[in-house]
């Protein structure tokens, strides 16, 4: 009907409860895992449209341990309201939450959405950080900030699962500034990123928020120091810094971080927050063993607040189960899944063009001349190891040479790929960011977290290897949260690749229009 009430009273249950709806079954599944916790008295009023089936995503996406996770199950989120009414005997706080958050842990006030970021952060984040945040231009909260910040400020471990460009970085940085104490000379927050480029970007935002407080007000705050411990950096200088006067926040890539940890140069004994950004990428990289060691050996989940962030977490139910089982997080880990119905930003227009592989260069030139994009990224797949050993010219180089020789308009093309050195990569990004109009040829190294908000067009010169790769490539455009500008993603494919693109469409739930030139 128009709503329902679930009573759970005085039975040995956990606070981890999930709801799911199977389209072909007229029933609702309630998963409850037994624990030794004293049972609270929960009342969960569920409101949903009376003329629709209540497609509810999990309050906390935690699978029944006796049931194998089903990757094909639909978990669809709508805004529904869940309120925990406490039993004073057990001291469970009253709470309310939107979407897929832990219903027993989220704080008061989320039913009424905050109009500004300041309202959300008041009482948690120092005022000088809030003033700096507003000066930069962060005033109105995005959906992931509306849903995620109350959960984070309550002290829960959390998985931030939201679209590209949705504001996850600012969300976890505000948490960092809410818990650190700049009067202490120790590393209190660690942010782990997959690439140097993303690390530089996160460091820049963190330092902007941590501007000298003496310039912003009368409060007696010591300035927060942020270290970028990234691949290609000067580790000798970082070693001296860490020993002399440890920074408050460290942004690190896995390889550089592990060097410092193994040599006992970096001490995580005082760490209060650990953030793993682009967590799915890191868990599928060659550095996964170091990451697991960081999560379990170098620090304990019980002594820190752990945050995982990504736009794509395949089989997220299973991942959350692993978080608890492997002790990467505490048992109360919350899953903030924003808009799971539409993983792709709605402002994107998707197109594809079918052409023989030997005509792709002419096809991309025709598309550029037709679209006349102000700023665009052309994505190319990384060169295979076999091609490298054979000495083949990379596709990126071939494409840049073709564009430069074919049209004066495209004579200035930047390159970003794994195989060029760190300084060249930094120079390419700097060149692109300083221009209002640019054309960047890149491999998937640019698809993870790199923020180029002026990008209006994405061209897949090579079809991505998976739907996750497509999602992150497409997410390099449409990165202005409150802009209505339409951005375009175009894939150049061979006829036999059409079914692959169709599979991406089904998985990511987007429509793709064919164009013929």
Automatic annotation (TrEMBL):
Q: Which UniProt keywords apply?
A: ATP-binding, Helicase, Hydrolase, Nucleotide-binding
- Do you know which InterPro entries this protein is assigned to? DEAD/DEAH_box_helicase_dom (IPR011545), DEAD/DEAH_RhlB (IPR044742), DEAD_box_RNA_helicases (IPR050547), Helicase_ATP-bd (IPR014001), Helicase_C-like (IPR001650), P-loop_NTPase (IPR027417), RNA_helicase_DEAD_Q_motif (IPR014014)
Map motif Q motif onto the chain: 118-146
Which stretches make up the Helicase C-terminal domain? 360-517
Pfam families according to UniProt: DEAD, Helicase_C
DEAD-box RNA helicase Q domain sequence ranges: 118-146
Q: Provide the GO MF annotations for this entry.
A: ATP binding; hydrolase activity; RNA binding; RNA helicase activity
Q: Where is the Helicase ATP-binding domain?
A: 149-331
Record field: catalytic activity? ATP + H2O = ADP + phosphate + H(+)
Q: What EC designation does it have?
A: 3.6.4.13
Report the protein name in the record. RNA helicase
Q: Please name the source species.
A: Opuntia streptacantha (Prickly pear cactus)
